[in-house]
Amino acid sequence: MRRVLVDRLQDEAVLAQDLVDARGVTLLRRGQPISPGVADRLRRLGIAEALVMDPSLADLDLRPPLSADTIRTVTAGLHEIMTAVRKAFEEGRAHPLAATTLLPLARRIVEDLESHRDRRFEMVPVISPDYLLGHLLNVAVLAVQLGRRAGLAHDRLVDLAAGGLVLDLGMLAEADTVRRSPGPLSPEDRRAIHQHPVRGVACLGESVSAFTKTIVVRHHERLDGSGYPAGLKGEDLHPLVRIAAVADVYVALTSDRPHRRRLPPHEVVDYLMSMAGVHFDPEVTRQLLSVVHPYPLGVRVRLGSGREGVVVGDRGLGTRPIVRVFQEGDRPLDRPYEVDLTAPEFQTEFITEILYT
Predict the structure, then answer these.
(1) Which among 61, 132, 74, 69 has a CA at the least distance from the CA of 103?
(2) Strand runs (DSSP E) across 143-270, as ranges?
(3) What are the phi and psi torsion angles at 163 (to 5°)?
(4) pTM of the complete model beyond 0.90
(5) Which residues are bridge partners to 102 per DSSP?
(6) Is 3 in a helix, a strand, or coil?
(7) 222-225: long-range contacts at Cβ-Cβ below 8 A with a sequence spacing of 24 or more?
(8) pLDDT tens digits for 247-259?
(9) CA 140 to CA 138: how far, in whole Å?
(10) Is 231 helix (H, G, I), strand (E, B) or coil?
């Protein structure tokens, strides 16, 4: 498998992943040839990046950490929750979400991740006109993977997954024109957005655990007190909140938004690490490096020496991955070889560019 930008897909490319819509329906299946018409459909659906088959990378497994069945089930359930909450906001009435609705989805995520312990975080692609659905699903997945690294008990992982799935429900109270604004928000709109954690926790019924509610109302608080809505800091922030905050920011910054393009994962990791101990928990940001790939598997890169190749793995240090080299300068290679950037002989070699072709 290999990652490519949809804008750069070639006619002979074959899709290497299922693509699911907001209702859990598979729109495009793994193995489907990507004709110009299909590529145009992907662009219109907001899919910027796709996984395609590549015989030279047949050994590279880029599947998301959840099974296809779990992705369909959780996506459909989350869509129903969001639809009900959005309608309640529009009608100006309360809609307390019950634990019996939320917990089966959270447990499904935790149990699925337990059966795929060897997989690191890969963004789960969801085709939806509202970016929020895919964001919530991926925050829940990444938060649970971070929670597992922290040694959390099963029940706390379920609370963490549940919190990730609903932490931004309060955003549904805002008009689409505000949430999807391509430009800067007015001070009034920004103040309203900063109240979404409070609105979100008000959507949760009494049966939802206090841990999950704490995640929802506190996930934008920061260690130094610069967050919102209450400006809490330090020891006032529960460990689950600290995990959810890192997962939320990582997924948000590595995803396209109406007002900005996504950032490469390695830049987002650099930012989170630079804010460790200031905005984010240092231990959680350290664990992030063992859960995500700063340089995603399957992405084509250029090295400082002029070598070009594809990231195929790492030795536990994601910022120094293993690159399978297919080209040296302008010269394609008949026999690709691998460069392990952690090896002593390659200590002066660095990734200088992500090519996505």
Answers:
(1) 74
(2) none
(3) -60, -40
(4) yes
(5) none
(6) strand
(7) 222/278, 222/279, 222/280, 223/277, 223/278, 223/279, 223/280, 223/281, 224/278, 224/279
(8) 999 999 998 777 7
(9) 5
(10) coil
- Residue 182 or 285, more confident: 285
What residues have CB less than 8 Å from 235, skipping those under 6 apart?
A: none
Topology of the domain comprising 68-288: Hypothetical protein af1432 (1.10.3210)
Q: Could you tell me the end-to-end alpha-carbon distance of the chain, in angstroms, rounded to an integer?
A: 12
The pLDDT tens digits of the residues spanning 308-356 come to 999 999 887 888 999 999 999 999 999 999 999 999 999 999 999 998 7
Indicate the domain borders of the chain.
Answer: 2-57, 68-288, 300-354
Mean pLDDT confidence for 149-158? 97
Environment class of 355 (CB within 10 Å of its CB; exposed 0-12, middle 13-18, buried 19+): middle
pLDDT > 70 fraction of the chain, expressed in percent and rounded: 96
- CA 30 to chain CA mean position, Å: 21
Per-residue pLDDT for 173 more than 80? yes
Token pair listed for 207: 């049966």
CA–CA separation, 164 vs 218, rounded Å?
12
Q: Which CATH superfamily is domain 2-57 in?
A: Molybdopterin biosynthesis moea protein, domain 2 (3.90.105.10)
The amino acid sitting at 69 is: D
pLDDT score at 177: 61
Across 84-118, b (16+ Cβ under 10 Å) vs e yields ebbebbeeeeebebebeebbebbbbbbebbeeeee
